[in-house]
Design goal:
- Belongs to the sigma-70 factor family. ECF subfamily.
- With 206 residues, this protein is an all-alpha fold.
- The chain has 2 domains: 78 residues, RNA polymerase sigma factor, region 2, helix turn helix motif (Rna Polymerase Sigma Factor, Chain: A, Orthogonal Bundle), CATH 1.10.1740.10; 83 residues, Arc Repressor Mutant, subunit A (Orthogonal Bundle).
- 65% of the residues lie in helices and 0% in strands.
- The protein is built from 11 helices and no strands.
- The longest helix has 23 residues.
- The protein is globular, with a radius of gyration of 23 Å.
- It starts with 22 loop residues before the first helix and ends in a 16-residue tail after the last helix.
Length: 206
């Protein structure tokens, strides 16, 4: 006598966890997750570094920045939603080791077009960039490093609070340093032969 086949129970496949997406999750995840963080922010950091020391050395600075970030990923404050200010802070510290390269970049104006964005507001203003850049580079090179840091971070699009987080300084200090740096740029440009309007910048609007 044939036995009826025993009923089978269909087990749904186990649900896979969604891949980590927040910076906090990527920093606490696998090596592959950290690679996604690199893909997310490397281009922005490279533009920032290129403005300060030129594109060739920027490659090395960005690579070192992410190496340090990986080694120190456990020190990232999990209460922060974005890891970008933290990465900018690391990159800025790495850039400080390249003071001579940055001074040379100011002298030879390797970042002419990008630096114009700090003070130029429209395409019409940028037509005079060649003359203004010489003034800008001279002023930036003469600024104290702490003032140069905030103005380049502001030019990169960081808000006041993000700059403060990147440099581990109070927001009020960011405002003060940025105001002084831009005041020196305004004065230098006002006393040059090239008319311009100093750009207020993304951070100043916050």
């Amino acid at each position: 006598m044939n036995q009826a086949p025993s009923p089978t129970t269909d087990h749904p496949p186990p649900e896979s966890s969604p891949p980590p997406s927040s910076d906090r999750e990527l920093l606490s995840g696998s090596v592959a997750d950290f690679g996604r963080l690199f893909d997310r922010y490397a281009a922005q950091l490279h533009r920032y570094c290129s403005r300060r020391i030129g594109p060739d050395l920027a490659d090395d600075v960005v690579a070192e920045t992410f190496l340090i970030a990986y080694e120190r990923r456990c020190s990232f404050d999990p209460s922060r939603s974005s890891g970008l200010p933290w990465l900018y802070g690391i990159a800025t510290n790495v850039l400080h080791r390249h003071r001579k390269a940055e001074a040379r970049a100011h002298r030879i104006l390797t970042y002419q077009g990008d630096s114009a964005d700090i003070v130029a507001e429209t395409a019409t203003e940028r037509t005079d960039a060649a003359a203004r850049i010489r003034t800008i580079a001279r002023v930036l090179g003469a600024l104290p490093r702490r003032h140069r840091d905030v103005i380049f971070l502001a030019a990169a699009g960081l808000e006041y609070a993000e700059i403060a987080a990147a440099l581990a300084i109070p927001v009020g200090t960011v405002r003060s340093r940025l105001h002084r740096a831009r005041a020196r740029l305004r004065w230098a440009l006002d006393h040059s032969d090239v008319p311009t309007i100093v750009r207020s910048g993304h951070a100043e609007a916050s």
